[in-house]
Design a protein that fits this description.
It contains eight helices and ten strands. The protein is an alpha+beta fold. Bound molecules: flavin mononucleotide. Flavin mononucleotide binds next to helix 6.
């Protein structure tokens, strides 16, 4: 006997559009279809997002070293000029304990096995924990030596933690550049840390005095002229709190508790490597 009952789809269509069961059913079906699309897009685009993140990180590293050219091939420039190395922040020496290509300091700092709490009296950058390892980038000079070392730095501003790179000459004393790649300070106020005019005030400034004392500071207003000015950078107008945060984070990472021990022995470490 032929089955002349209408199919499920026809039965649903024949139900009145005002029927609450149909309204709920259609809404649920629509949600399911949309969630499948969104999940597929999120999973499918993940490799592309990762690649973009990596490219943007490389671009920032090249920029702080003054090597980024407009329209330049980021990956080619990075490969040609940069060498990623791991520094053990507990000893200030290069380490092979983790692979610099996969190590992520921002993830490690949340892992108690890979980081230590910072005592509150030392925590001038307000970052609470310090990872055991940091990835630094050695900038090759093209003749077997190095012309700079790029250090990852971070610390609290007014509204957010600022993440960036501090590039230093191989003498471990002279700054080549400072650049942030992630923060949420107010555009036009604290966000002026990204202004090229302000960033241009950093190259040539000195971290340490002749006696090795940490002297770099971001001052309120304009930097002094003469010898004192070599250790000072102008504060940002209307953004004293972000400026103070930058001062604190640069000083923390250059200090004994940050990369200080590494910077002190940098020249010997690099000559072993070069
Ligand atoms: C909406 C708003 C956003 C602000 N954002 C920042 C900021 O990102 N960084 C900062 O240092 N100050 C910011 N300030 C200003 C601070 O509250 C504070 O007044 C300022 O840091 C003092 O700087 P000055 O002594 O140079 O004027 C903001 C103020 C307002 C009202």
């Amino acid at each position: 006997m032929p089955d002349d009952r209408p199919g499920l789809f026809r039965r649903i269509l024949s139900v009145s559009n005002d029927d609450p069961r149909k309204i709920v059913g259609v809404a649920v079906a629509l949600c399911l279809v949309c969630s499948v699309f969104v999940s597929a897009a999120a999973i499918g685009l993940r490799p592309l997002q990762e690649a973009n993140k990596r490219q943007s990180m490389r671009q920032n590293i090249l920029q702080v070293a003054g090597l980024m050219q407009p329209g330049g091939d980021v990956d080619a420039l990075f490969k040609q000029n940069m060498e990623a190395r791991i520094v053990d922040l507990r000893t200030g020496r290069f380490s092979d304990a983790v692979d610099p290509d996969v190590y992520d300091q921002r993830t490690a700092v949340r892992d108690p096995a890979l980081s230590d709490p910072i005592p509150p009296d030392e925590d001038i950058a307000a970052i609470k924990r310090k990872a055991h390892f940091a990835t630094v980038y050695l900038v090759k000079d093209g003749s077997g030596g190095y012309r700079a070392v790029i250090l990852p730095v971070h610390g609290y501003g007014l509204w957010s933690t600022l993440y960036g790179y501090l590039a230093v000459k191989p003498d471990g004393r002279e700054i080549v550049g400072l650049q942030f790649y992630d923060h949420a300070e107010t555009p036009g106020l604290g966000g002026e840390v990204d202004n090229p005019v302000w960033r241009a005030k950093w190259p040539g400034k000195r971290l340490f005095g002749e006696d090795g004392e940490l002297r770099i500071e971001v001052v309120k207003g304009a930097a002094a002229t003469g010898e004192k000015g070599a250790y000072q950078v102008d504060g940002l107008a209307g953004a004293t709190l972000t400026s103070r945060g930058v001062n604190n984070l640069v000083r923390y990472w250059a200090s004994q508790n940050g990369f200080g021990p590494f910077l002190r022995t940098l020249q010997q470490e690099l000559s072993k490597d070069g």
